Amino acid sequence: MQELESLEKAKEELHSIPAELDRIDKLAKSVGDTITNAFTNALVEGKSLKNLLVDIARSFANIAVKAALKPLGNMITGLVADLFKGTNSALPPIKPFAKGGVINAPSYFPMQGAVGLAGEAGAEAIMPLKRNSRGELGVAASAVQAPIMISMTVNAQDARSFAQAEAEISAGLLQAIKRGQRAS
After folding, report:
1. Taking a C-beta distance cutoff of 8 angstroms, is the pair 175, 150 a contact?
2. Which domain of life is it from (predicted)?
């Protein structure tokens, strides 16, 4: 299970690489645009070199602050989203019990026209039910049934006497199979 989670996390990180490269590209373009605009303004407006450097430094500081605060903003957004996911009763986690299971803590579940409560007084089992060949409903056993062994001893003195016993052997096997089918 842990390996699967690690693999999923690695996939997510690999999928985030193009987004990070795009973010770095936008940051580089922003820096280039800032320097170009500062020099253009200095030439057009006749600003001094000192004012030009102050404008560039201010723009770099603005870019750096935005870049530094972006992960914090993403983290806050994620926390708020997780908070609402965790408290939203319309989206509870789903645990299937098709093969049975144990409820160790009080758990509510929908029932036809009501709400059920299980596990309030300790561990409770959920067991799948199955109908047998007679239509009776009971707990479905998941254990593999052992094969039925049939042993027959044939005393024959020669090949011809064995061939004569063949009809008796077939009839005995057929009766055993029919008894087994009625019992299940």
Report:
1. no
2. Bacteria
